[in-house]
Amino acid sequence: MLYLSSFAFPGWDAEYSYRLNKVKRTCYNTMYPFFVLSARAFSRIDFEPVTILYGGNGSGKSTALNVIAEKLRLERSSLHNRSDFFEDYIKMCSCSREKSVTGEIITSDDVFDYMLSVRGVNAGVDERREELFE
Asked: Which pLDDT value is given to residue 106?
């Protein structure tokens, strides 16, 4: 089922204007997520029934998903990158919805965290079994 029809991220000009007009301090080493997607001219996603984001490490896939999840207030199982500028960036984004959006976003971080928790449970079971055998 298609929930979103499109999602727009701020372009480089809007981001640069924000930096000039809003950011007074210059001691930041990052303004994440500013200038991550715009540096790759990634300003809009038009969704289809199945939409796949692909690209190399550092291409902005997770950043795009994190921004979309925050804008739509979706639940997250795992922590994700944030900065002092994240909320301002979210306010600059827009989306068009065909229906109300509910649900959860799943990223590779969520899968990895789940696998670690299962591994921890399994380790506990193995230790308990060894204790019972003794």
From this structure: 66
Strand partners, 75: 104
Is residue 87 within 8 Å of 118, Cβ to Cβ? no
* Coil vs helix vs strand at 74: coil
Asked if 6 and 46 count as a contact pair (C-beta separation under 8 A), the reply is yes
Nearby residues of 103 by Cβ (< 8 Å), 6 or more positions away: 3, 74
Judged by phi (left if over 0) then psi (alpha if -120 to 50, else beta), residue 73 lies in left
**Mind giving me the DSSP string for 23-59?**
------S--TTTTTSGGGT--EEE--SS-----STTS
Q: Which residue has the higher pLDDT, 2 or 35?
A: 35
